[in-house]
Fold this protein.
Amino acid sequence: MKFGGELDDQVIVERVVKGQSDLFRFLIERHQKAVYGLGLSFFRNAEEAADFVQEVFLKTFRNLASFQGRSRFSTWLYKIAYNTALNSVKRNKEYQSLAEDMDIPDPDTPERQSIRSAACQAVQEAMDELPGKYRICMDLYFFYDRSYHEIEAVTGFPVNTIKSHVFRAKKLLKKKLGDIAEGGFE
């Protein structure tokens, strides 16, 4: 018999639903980092993101029997996480992109580090100016490496709308970052 860490998500879900609830910890271990990252995107606070992770996995556990396997477990989990975060954000504050956390270490010269820092700051500011629906699609597509169909399952936006949001967001970012490049970093 394989240990839970080697089992496929679907198999673990089936076993948890049949009563082996202790296996749920493997799903948590496997997916908590991604859920935490999504929480940070929405809440910008480590403590709130940690609370969010607990809430998401509690909801997931309670609703596990409703998982039908028509999508990957991770997509289903992300939908729960996204909806939980969206509901919380609607009550509290605005969504903020993961691009704000872009901190790419550069062992090069201080001058190159300064240029990289300015470029990251420019990307962060440009992402902040995008409409929320564009930012979430960009985050899921680029930072979480989700397919258009997975983003559809998570957000409820039709695939063509997601493609349009990503295309428009890239176009807006290109224009904004192009304007900055022409004007120089200040």
Remarks:
- The chain has two domains: 1-96, 98-186.
- Residues 1-96 form a domain with the Rna Polymerase Sigma Factor; Chain: A fold (CATH 1.10.1740.10).
- Residues 159-183 form the longest helix (25 residues).
